[in-house]
Predict the structure.
Amino acid sequence: MKTNNRNLLPQSSELKVALLVFAFIIVAGTLWYTHSIVGDLEANQKHMASIFVKSIDYIGNNKTQPGDYSFVLEEIISNIEFPLILSDSTDEPLQPYSLFVKNIVLDSTKSPDQQRLYLKKLMAEMDERNPRIKSEVSESVILNYVHYGESKLITRLRLLPYIEISVVALWILIGYISFSYIKRSEQSNIWVGMARETAHQLGTPISSMMGWVELLKHQTGSSDPKITETLHDMDNDLQRLQKIASRFSRIGSKPDLKDENLVEVIEKVIQYFQRRIPQTGKKVQLSLEYKSPVSAQINSELFEWVIENLVKNGLDAIESGSGKITIALAERQNSVNIDVTDTGKGIDMTYRKEVFRPGFSTKKRGWGLGLSLSQRIIETYHSGKLTLKDSKPGIGTTFRIKLRRT
C-alpha cells in the first residue's frame, strides 16, 4: 500500500514528541526548583526549631541563672512562622497550652481536655513529617520534646508548581481549541473557495457544449440511429457534468434538507455505475440490501455525491478485476446506518483516522480529497457521521454513514 503523504507523518509525530519532551522538561524543572526552595526552607525551619531546643536546654542546665519558658517563646523565637508544640518528657502538651504552642489557634470554647486531644493529634501529624527534637539535661534525662510542622509559606510553595502547571495547561488547552477552530475555519474557507471556483470555471464550457449538442441534434435529425444514440450519451454526460458543477456550487451554502427515500436515492447511484462498470474492464457486482424503505433528512445531490465517492473508492480498491460492493441500510432507534462494503485490497487500520485527512490517499494516483469531502458533507451539512467501520488487508473495507432518523 502506498500513501501519497506518508513521508509527512513522521515529521508530524516527531514534532508532537518534541513538544511533549519540552513540556516534560519545563514541568520537571519547575518541580525540581520548587522542591529545592522548599528543602532550603525546611532546613531553615529545622535550624530554628533546634535553636529553640538549645534555648530550653540552656535554661534547664543553667542552675544559677534561672529563666522561664515564656522568655524563650516571646523573645528568642518570636519570629518563628511554623507551628510548634512543646511537650514534656512523657509527650504530653505543656500547660497552659496557649503559652507553649506557636502559630496554632486553640478554640477557647473547648475544654482543656478537648484542647489536649487536639494538640496530641497535631503532634502525631507533625512527627510523621518532621522527627521531634528532644531537650535534655543529660543523655539520660529528657526535659521536653519539640514538635513542629510546616509553615504556611512552605505549604503554598508545595502547591505552587501544580497551580502553575494547571494554569499553563489551561492556557494550552484554550490555545489548542482556538487554533483548531481557526484551522478548521481556514480549511473550510479553502474548500468553499476551491469548490465555487471549480463550479464557476465549469459553468461556461458546459453551457457552450450543451448548446453545440442541441445544434448537432437539429442538423442531423434522426436519420442515423448511431449518431442519435451518440448525441444522447453526450447529452447525458453533459447533464452529469452540470450536476457535478451544481454540487460544487452548493459547498459552503446551507443545504436544503428534505425527507428523502434513501433506497431510491442510492438506487440511482447504483444504476449510474452499473452502466459504466463494464467500460472499466472489471466485473463488480453492486447490490443494495434493506428490509424496508428508509427515509432521512438529506440533500439528495450532496448525499449522492458521498455514495458515489465511496463506491468509486470500492471500485479502485478491487484490483483483481472482479468483486462485490454492497450497500446495506439498517434502521436504529434514533438513526439510520448506511454501510458501504467492498471486497477490495483493504486499508491498514492504523490509518483509521488518517484516511479522512485531506491529501491522504492509498492510491498511486489520487488527490486524497474524496473521503475528506464526503465526511465534511455528512458531518457539516447533514449532522451525521462518516467513519471507517472496519477494514482488513486483502479482505475488504466497510465505511459507515450514520444519519439521524426523521
